Amino acid sequence: MTKPRAPKSTPAAAERHGKVRSAGELVGAVGGVAFRRFGFVQSAVVERWAEIVGERYARVSLPESIRFPAGKKAGGALTLTVEGAHAPLMQHMAPMIVERVNRFFGYQAVDRIVFRQGRIAPAPKPARPAAPSRPVPADTAANIRAVDDPELRAVLESLAGKLAGSSGPPVADEPRPVTIPLIRLADG
Prior knowledge:
Elements: H1 11-15, H2 23-37, H3 44-47, H4 49-53, H5 55-58, E1 61-67, E2 76-82, H6 87-92, H7 94-105, E3 110-117, H8 138-145, H9 150-165
Parallel strand pairs: 2-3
Antiparallel strand pairs: 1-2
């Protein structure tokens, strides 16, 4: 007689608890594998690039990969994609970028920067603040009160209040032109 086999437990099955998870929770794990494959030890370098180098330089550059010497996790080369005309300025800023990236890692992770010219996708615009809601008009409120489902009623009241507080159709903002920083030489 043979022993019955115990069912194999997989890591994915072990993590399932029957709860709904947000897409943000799932993307971090999936993205981490892809980032490591293409040279990033931490995806946080890409996610927090604006914090590391500042908003001004983050608009015109994006980290592409970090390549370390064989068997080491220090003394790597950071590859940056930079908008064409900004490459000379970014080359002058290389020592500052190396210092800030190493401060982010907490050790001498990067020794040099390799620049590659390319296009940078614009950063997503922050969401607009919601329009203030006003009291729902009386005729609309009477119709909403007739809805039996309390959750749907609350959503409809919120929507009616926002519509009452708005003035006309939504208006799109004009895109801001990207300014090129000026470098002034001291007379001397």
